[in-house]
Amino acid sequence: MVYIDKNELRENNSKDVYPTKDILGRPIKDLSNTEWWGIPRKEIEWYPRIDYERCIGCGLCFFTCSGRVVYDWDFEKMRPVVARPYNCMVGCDTCAKMCPRDAILFPPLGYLRKLRDKAQAIVQSRQRLRELREKICTSK
Ligand code: SF4
Ligand code: SF4
Predict the structure, then answer these.
(1) Are residues 87 and 130 located together in one domain of the fold?
(2) 94, 97, 109: which to mutate for ligand 2, most atoms within 8 A of CB?
(3) What pTM value is reported for the model?
(4) In the prediction, which pLDDT does 11 show?
(5) What is the total count of domains within the chain?
(6) How far is the CA of 49 from the centre of ligand 1 (A)?
C-alpha cells in the first residue's frame, strides 16, 4: 500500500486528479509537463531508480526530497516508491548521496552533459543573464 489518502489530502482541487499534499503535508505539484531548457521534461530520463535488493527502508530519501516530493512511502513494505519521477530536478542526485546503501541509481554524468549540450543550456543561460542585466540596468 502506498500511503496517499486521496480524500484527506486533496484540497482545493476542483478536477480532483492529483493529490495536493502528501502524508507529511508537503505540497505536491505535477512538474511532468514542464520543460528543462526547452526540452520536455518527460523526454528526459533523469529520476531515481531504487535497487530494492540493497534498500534497507531507512526513509532518508523520502524525507530528503521535500521540495519536489518525488517519493511516496509504502508502509506495508516499508520502502520508498518513486511516485513522481518527472518531478525530479534534472541534475539533482541528493537523495542518492544521502542513501546509506547506495541503493538509488541515476544515469551517468555523461548523459546529463550530453543533454546540457543538446539543449544549448549554456548559450541560453548566458542569453538570460544578458537580458536580466539589460532589464536591471534600464530600470535604474
Ligand atoms: S535512502 Fe536508500 S536505503 Fe534508505 S530508504 Fe531510501 S533507498 Fe532505501
Ligand atoms: S535527486 Fe533531488 S529532486 Fe530528485 S528525487 Fe532525489 S532529492 Fe528529489
Answers:
(1) no
(2) 94
(3) 0.86
(4) 40
(5) 2
(6) 11
The CA distance from 81 to 72, in Å, is: 5
User: Is 69:82 a contact under the CB 8 Å cutoff?
Assistant: no
Three-state DSSP at 121 gives helix
Q: Which single residue is written with the C-alpha cell 535488493?
A: 53
What pLDDT digit, counting tens, does each position of 68-112 carry? Answer: 999 999 999 999 999 999 999 999 999 999 999 999 999 999 999
Smallest CA-to-CA distance from 32 within 72, 81, 89 is with 89
How many whole angstroms separate alpha carbon 6 and alpha carbon 23? Answer: 10
- Give the three cell numbers for residue 6: 486521496
Per DSSP bridges, beta strands 49-50 and 35-36 are unpaired
Q: Which domain holds residue 97?
A: 6-107
pLDDT in tens, 37-57: 999 999 999 999 999 999 999
Q: Are residues 30 and 49 in the same domain?
A: yes
Is the CB of 96 inside a 6 Å radius of any atom of ligand 1? no
Confidence of residue 14 (pLDDT cuts 50, 70, 90): very low
CA of 96 to the centre of ligand 1 (A): 8
